[in-house]
Design a protein that fits this description.
- The structure holds two protein chains of two kinds.
- Chain A has a seven-stranded antiparallel beta sheet with strand order 2-1-5-6-7-4-3.
- Chain A is α+β, with helices and mostly antiparallel strands.
- The termini of chain A are far apart.
- Chain A has four helices and seven strands.
- By secondary structure, chain B is of the alpha/beta class.
- A seven-stranded mixed beta sheet of chain B has the order 7-8-9-10-11-12-13.
- In chain B, helix 2 packs across helix 3, helix 6 packs parallel to helix 7 and helix 7 packs parallel to helix 8.
- Chain B is globular and about 55 Å long.
- At the A-B interface, helix 2, strand 6 and helix 3 of A face helix 3 of B.
- The structure holds iron/sulfur cluster (SF4).
Chain lengths: ~150, ~425
């Protein structure tokens, strides 16, 4: 069962949300891209298209699937709720009927090619919304505060 | 050759090699080993083949094998790469056990001794399969395909075999042709173009061509007829593509001289040129590729390979080789250490020009002169591929020909993905 609940799934699949993918290159340098195509599929996995075969994110994702590295997906909704999803690479689809269907749509709608459809499996979700994190810090770590904010 | 029941005790295992090369992806080590040891399919794995969906060996022709078994044409791994194990598998004479493709919990796995190693799926049949050319012959007679590449084997017979002992000793192409008593050495380009036209109707399927075939030595100068044949083919297919631009295509041919290369580059829209040096040692080359050595010679083959960059440009030239064959007996290297040293030093003199080495894993193919030999250890293959990768990155070679998705035959080149 996926760890992505229905609310988060709707947020991710909402086209107005901003979604990024970060993976680490072989050199150790992290690389981030924004992915409009990113969505949650019926199995609860995260799926997105990689258009350019020479892209750095493709390199970083291959590095992740080969060496079992983590990938992070960040989601920012229109009303500024933010989530970080930690994931593992599951599959890079480079051929077959599903690939061809996505390819045809991209070609027709935007005159794009297609490198791969990446499928990644979420392993942890963190609510990174500022209001939520601020409240949590105040509750969990009352020590963390400038004194002038605490005076009567 | 009987199965050596003790073979596992004599060499490092997959896990041990992976532990020794931690920066080498274990999935690629497995790919190398599957090509090295071969693979067989359980009945359960065969029952997963859907004849309406999957591409199986018995669907199409393939000069490098005779067996037309009901086995998948190839395997697709989860990293989006392909695994080609296309030579015939000698079920009788294998010293080592093959890997086994089996079904576990309804999924298809490469296994060894019952252990699940990698989940795979099977190649999907292209739409042109089961269609006929205007002469009534199946289109699969004229072209074959990988998941993303159209392959055309122009000449089914290699004329190095006309000379006694001239054929490359690891190669089953011409022995298979002779064994099957085939007569049609070269197909009419007209039908090849018909097959290509049909294949290109499938959007998103193919991203390149590979043209190859047996060598043709005749002509005013050696190889002139081979050149003419390829020019005719590459031009005819090129007419289907935009004017004034080269199209994603690779030719693997004999080593043309400068005059021939000039014609090839000027008269066609070919994008990438490959000529296979095969064995990275002058002396071993002379023994293993006797015909190539007799007509052209190691040094001249290498010189022409490097010279072809002036015509096709850096990044657009590569060379194939059959890795491991340098250890064949009786005249090959006796130790893997010596072979490693010699061939990796020689490799640098080629790769430093920006030429990538598309090295196949040598698995002695039935029908070839070397059919009953024993190929090197997994550790040897991985250490050579590792060194080649270092050179490929150092000299910034082209990375998209013969790669993990257009070809699938050269696991060492997969390393250029990162
Ligand atoms: S040149 Fe050698 S490898 Fe190529 S087809 Fe002829 S015999 Fe086979």
């Amino acid at each position: 069962m996926s760890i992505i609940d229905n609310v988060l799934k709707e947020d991710i699949n909402n086209p107005t949300s901003l979604k990024s993918v970060t993976a680490v290159l072989k050199s150790g340098v992290p690389h981030t891209v924004y992915k409009g195509s990113l969505h949650v599929n019926e199995d609860g996995d995260i799926v997105f298209n990689d258009i350019l075969e020479s892209s750095r994110i493709n390199e970083a994702l291959v590095n992740a699937i080969w060496f079992d590295k983590y990938i992070t997906v960040n989601v920012l909704t229109e009303d500024k709720r933010s989530y970080e999803i930690i994931a593992k690479a599951k599959e890079s689809i480079t051929q077959g009927k599903e690939f061809e269907e996505v390819y045809k749509k991209l070609k027709k709608d935007r005159d794009f090619d297609l490198n791969a459809i990446w499928v990644i499996e979420p392993v942890e979700v963190r609510n990174e919304s500022f209001d939520y994190r601020k409240k949590k810090q105040e509750e969990d770590y009352p020590f963390l505060k400038h004194l002038d904010r605490a005076v009567k | 050759m009987a199965r050596d029941l003790e073979w596992r005790k004599k060499e490092l295992s997959l896990d041990e090699v992976a532990a020794k090369f931690p920066s080498f992806p274990k999935l690629l080590i497995l790919k190398i080993d599957v090509q090295r040891r071969g693979v067989i399919y359980t009945e359960a794995a065969q029952s997963k083949i859907d004849p309406n969906i999957h591409q199986v060996q018995s669907d199409g022709q393939q000069g490098f094998r005779i067996e037309q078994r009901y086995f998948p044409e190839g395997l697709i791994l989860k990293d989006g790469s392909y695994l080609i194990v296309s030579y015939d598998y000698d079920f009788e004479n294998q010293k080592r056990d093959p890997y086994v493709v089996d079904v576990i919990d309804d999924r298809i796995w490469i296994t060894d001794e019952g252990r699940k190693l990698a989940e795979v799926s099977y190649f999907v049949k292209p739409d042109y399969y089961n269609k006929l050319a205007s002469n009534g012959e199946p289109l699969t007679k004229y072209i074959s395909s990988r998941p993303q590449r159209i392959d055309v084997v122009l000449n089914q017979y290699c004329h190095f075999w006309d000379r006694n002992g001239g054929g490359c000793k690891y190669c089953p192409l011409t022995p298979n042709y002779l064994k099957q008593k085939l007569k049609e050495e070269r197909y009419n380009v007209k039908y090849i173009v018909e097959a290509v036209k049909e294949a290109l109707k499938q959007e998103g399927r193919f991203s390149g061509f590979m043209f190859t075939g047996g060598s043709i030595l005749s002509g005013d100068n050696v190889l002139d007829d081979e050149l003419d044949a390829y020019i005719e083919l590459i031009k005819a297919i090129g007419d289907l593509f935009e004017d004034g631009k080269r199209y994603p295509s690779q030719l693997i041919s004999s080593a043309f001289d400068e005059r021939q290369l000039e014609r090839l580059v000027n008269e066609t829209k070919l994008m990438h040129y490959t000529t296979d040096i095969e064995v990275l040692d002058r002396e071993k080359f002379a023994w293993i590729c006797e015909g190539k050595n007799h007509y052209i010679g190691y040094d001249e083959w290498k010189r022409r390979l490097v010279a072809s960059i002036d015509y096709f440009g850096k990044g657009n030239v590569s060379s194939g080789m059959v890795l491991g064959v340098e250890l064949a007996s009786p005249n090959g290297f006796v130790s893997e250490e010596e072979a490693f040293k010699v061939i990796t030093e020689e490799a640098e003199t080629i790769v430093e020009n920006g030429i990538s080495l598309a090295a196949n894993v040598w698995r002695p193919a039935p029908g070839s002169v070397f059919q009953n030999q024993y190929n090197p250890s997994l550790e040897y293959f991985v250490s050579v591929y590792n060194k080649f990768d270092e050179l490929h990155h150092k000299y910034n070679v082209g990375r998209y020909t013969d790669d993990y998705r257009r070809c699938g035959m050269h696991p060492g080149l997969d390393l250029l993905r990162v």
